[in-house]
Each structure stands twice: as C-alpha cells, then as structure tokens.
UniProtKB/TrEMBL annotation:
Classification via InterPro entries: Cas7_Csh2/Csh2, CRISPR-assoc_prot_Cas7/Csh2
Protein name according to UniProt: CRISPR-associated protein Csh2
Pfam family, one: Cas_Cas7
Gene Ontology biological-process entries: maintenance of CRISPR repeat elements
Length: 320
C-alpha cells in the first residue's frame, strides 16, 4: 500500500434505469424498495458497496476483496472459515493480523468491517490464538440512495419454462402447465447517491489515493456493467467528486440539486423527461470554495448533452 492517504472527498452520483429492480427487498418478495410515505425508490448502501466489490473482483481480481460469497460443497461458509480459506495466519499478534488484512483487501481498507477470527473454545484449546476478532471503520461510506422523484411500479405475471415438480411414473407429479412467476419492476427511476471518503479513517486503514480512484471507477463502471435480468439498462449518468484541502466539507449534496420534471413524476420514463437543476449545488460549493482543492466529474454522453450548460467551468472532466 502507498503511504499517501487521501484528502477528504465528497461524492454525488446520479444513476438510473428503465423497467428494472435496482435493489430488491428480500423480506418483501424481492420487490423494489419504496418509501411508502414519499413514493420514492430506495437503494441501500449495502447494494452500492456490492456493486463496487463485484467490479473490483472483475478488474482487480477476487484476491483484493474479502467480503464475497464463500462456499464449500455448496454450503455457505462463515467469516472465521473464510479467514482460513484466505490462508491468513490467525496465530500472529492482533496488530500483525490487522496489518495483513488491511494490506491484502481493498474493500476492507475502503468500507471497514467486523471480522470474527476465533471463538472461546478454539482459543482455549490453542493458546497460540489470541485474537477473537478485528474491527475496522472504513473511510468510504454511503447514505441510503433515493430516487429524485416518485416512481411507478409494475407488477408482472408470467410463466416459467418448467414445471415445479415432475416424476416419471407418479401421475400426481406430472403437470401440463409450467410454474407461474410474479415480479415487480420500476418503470423508471433516477437515483442520487451521496458518499464520503474520510481522511482520518483512511489513515487508520491505509486507504490511499490509488484505492480511491479504483473505488470511484468501480462505482461508475460497476453500475453500467451489472448485466443481470433485473439490472439490464442500469446506467451511470453523472458523478461529482469534490476534494477538500482540510476537514471542511459542504455536505448533503444529494439534497442540493433540484429535479425539474416535464411530466408528473410517475409518468417519467427516460432521461429526456426531466432536467436536473444544479443552481443550489453550485451556490453551496461557492460558499466552501476556499476549502475546496478541486471538483471533478464523470458524465454520460446523454446526460452531458442535456445539462452541460450548467456545469461550472472550474469543474474538471474525468475521461476514462
């Protein structure tokens, strides 16, 4: 790891999709998450971090990510076993154990984690094991993401290709009809995700500027490359990255932009049905201008065509 840790950064990320399920709620038949009071869609920070981890695995390799599925003979492993699967020496001192984990796993440097290492019985039987667990506070954190408008949800019914059960000789298990399926999709949603990279926690985990670039790239490209049935068409539209000189920061960036729809919220279906007004955000950043080192942005072609007249001339466009 590089010794150069990051300067404090804020992130505003806008992303959208059509006929999709950005973050299913497993406790509600995997339906999209919607705030019943406001009618806006939601996506958890866990979903955002998973997008980043999945892309890091693709681009950097599975060995740089600790939090991922671990299986043995189709059985899901616990964290203590995963530690051993990664051939981490659990008999070293706690300080050395923490150092090894942070040096090896980018996602732990970024997001932190609580990792059980051993238990009382194992430690009682093996006196060389002295660490029950380790805990890290990550420098990269995200709020719950919310759509900038009320959404319309479609309930779809269909049939599968196969029967739910079949037996060659038992007529009770022979069916002439395939299974039914039901699912819910959002017609359209534009999300605003707010995140922060904290310089103090970065010093503790060794999270550096190179790591920061990899995480931001993974968020952008991971959102686009998440090609599954429920996520097809998910698109990163705009990402603003503000780097500060000191501990001052503007905050609440996701609530500093305005959504100007050309239709009723629930009737919005694509990027051409609205405009994002950046006036309040630019005024806020002007107030903090003395503390800002630089403002950079990623942008999708279509979003840029619709909004480029609003981008401040001091903002630096990141080309990837």
């Amino acid at each position: 790891m590089s010794e150069k840790t990051i300067l404090k950064k804020e992130i505003l990320f806008l992303w959208d999709g059509e006929n999709w399920n950005p973050n299913g709620d497993m406790l509600n038949s995997n339906a999209p998450r919607i705030d019943e009071e406001t009618g806006v869609a939601e996506a958890t920070d866990v979903r955002i971090k998973r997008t980043i981890r999945d892309e890091l695995i693709k681009k950097e390799g599975a060995e740089v990510v600790f939090i991922k599925p671990y299986k043995r003979d189709e059985n899901v492993l616990d964290c203590k076993t995963a530690i051993r699967e990664n051939e981490i020496n659990i008999k070293q001192s706690k300080a050395d154990l923490e150092k090894e984990i942070l040096e090896r796993f980018l996602d732990i440097r970024a997001f932190g984690g609580v990792l059980p290492i051993s238990d009382k019985d194992e430690m009682k039987n093996d006196k060389e094991i002295t660490t029950a667990g380790v805990q890290f506070t990550g420098s990269v954190q995200f709020r719950m993401s919310k759509s900038l408008h009320k959404v319309s949800m479609n309930h779809i019914k269909g049939t599968g290709a196969f029967a739910s059960n079949y037996h060659a000789t038992d007529s009770k298990k022979q069916k002439q009809q395939a299974t039914f399926r039901e699912e819910d999709f959002l017609s359209y949603a534009l999300f605003a995700t707010y995140g922060m990279m904290d310089n103090y926690n970065a010093k503790k985990t060794g999270f550096n500027e190179e790591d920061a670039v990899k995480v931001m790239d993974a968020l952008w490209f991971g959102t686009k490359n998440l090609i599954t049935r429920s996520k097809m068409g998910q698109t990163p539209r705009f990402m603003l990255v503000i780097t500060y000189k000191d501990d001052t920061f503007a905050g609440d960036l996701n609530n500093s932009i305005d959504f100007d729809g050309k239709k009723d919220d629930e009737a919005i279906r694509n990027i051409n049905d609205y405009k994002i007004n950046f006036s309040r955000l630019k005024a806020k950043l002007e107030r903090y201008s003395d503390a800002i080192d630089k403002v950079e942005y990623f942008v999708d072609y279509d979003f840029e065509e619709n909004h480029k007249e609003q981008f401040d001339t001091s903002w630096i466009k990141i080309e990837r």
